[in-house]
Structure formats: C-alpha cells, structure tokens
Amino acid sequence: MRIISFTLLLALSLSSSGQAKNPFLNLKFDKVVFYDFKDISEKGSLIVDNNGGLLQTILKQVQLDTTTIKKLNFKLGDKKSYGSGTANCFDPHCGFVYFLKGKPVGQITICLSCNRLYSSVDIPAQKQGKQSQGKDEYYLLEGLSKSFRQFINGLLIKNNFNHQIKPGSQFDE
C-alpha cells in the first residue's frame, strides 16, 4: 500500500510541476554538447547530421556536465519555461545536441533574438494556448520565459559564447 501511495504522490507531483510529459526525462543519451555557431545555413536546419557530422559553422562547443544536463532537461520540459511572446526572425546561434554512441538523438536550436527554440524532440510544455484545429492549428505564446532565457544566457556567459543577451533586450524587460 505504501508503494502505491508513493507512486501516486510522485505522479501527482510530477504532473503539478509540469513534468509529467517531459520527453527529456526519458531520452536515452550519453552526452550533451552545447554549440555556438554562425548564422544557420538554412532556417530549421539541424546542428549535426544523423552521422554526427557538423552542418553548421561551429565557433565553439562544450560538453555539458551532469548537473547542467539535469537542469536543462528539467527546464526544457517545464511549462514555466515557455509562455512568452516571440518575433519572426528565427536565426539561431546556439543549440544543444543529445548524443547516444556518437549519433544525435535530439537537437535544439535557439534564437534569443526572437525568443524561440526549435527541437527535433516534440516538447509538449512548449505548446500552450492552442488555437484552431487541424491544418489551421497553431499555438500562442510559445516563446521562452524570462527565467529560461536567463538560464540559457547564463550558459552562454559561462562558456564565453557569442550572442549573449544584451541589457534591455525586448524579451527581458
């Protein structure tokens, strides 16, 4: 009976914290690399190909430590990490690639200028404010929250990456 109660309590706490459908908590990977790159060659393009070959002009790359990965995974799947407005540029200059045995299993590109990210792994928490149905379906306010932007910017600063958030940025006021 205690095991059932604990399982139920755990499920409720994950659900209330927005983590019940976090795909990054179950993603199988053995390393995560944070990339700083020049203008992306094609909008929506990935950072590496299926064989681990670079598709972008990489300026710098850093393998993340376990603590940072846990924080990143939590934030990626948390509804509180999204819900802000966006602009339309989507010219990402940084991103993360999850690898398993040298092959990418998940990729995320981020444009802090327009306040959005693209993930090859579907992120349910990002889809807030659903509008319409079928082919006309879209989501409002899928942009990064101020706290998630600060987390990403902290990683940019820590690793001396380019394109750090400038004071007075449109999405940080």
Walk me through what this model shows.
This protein starts with a helix and ends in a 15-residue tail after the last helix. The strands form 3 sheets. A 5-stranded antiparallel sheet has the order 2-1-4-5-6, with no helix packed on it. Strands 3-9 form a two-stranded antiparallel ribbon. A two-stranded antiparallel sheet has the order 7-8. A hairpin with a 2-residue loop joins strand 4 and strand 5 (103-111). It is of the alpha+beta class and 173 residues long. It has helices at residues 2-16, 66-76, 146-158; strands spanning 31-37, 58-63, 82-84, 94-100, 103-111, 116-119, 130-131, 138-139, 143-144. The protein contains 3 helices and 9 strands; from the N terminus they run αββαβββββββα. It has one domain (22-158). The radius of gyration is 17 Å and the shape is globular. The model is unreliable at 1-17 (pLDDT under 50). The longest helix is centred in the first third of the chain and has 15 residues, at 2-16.
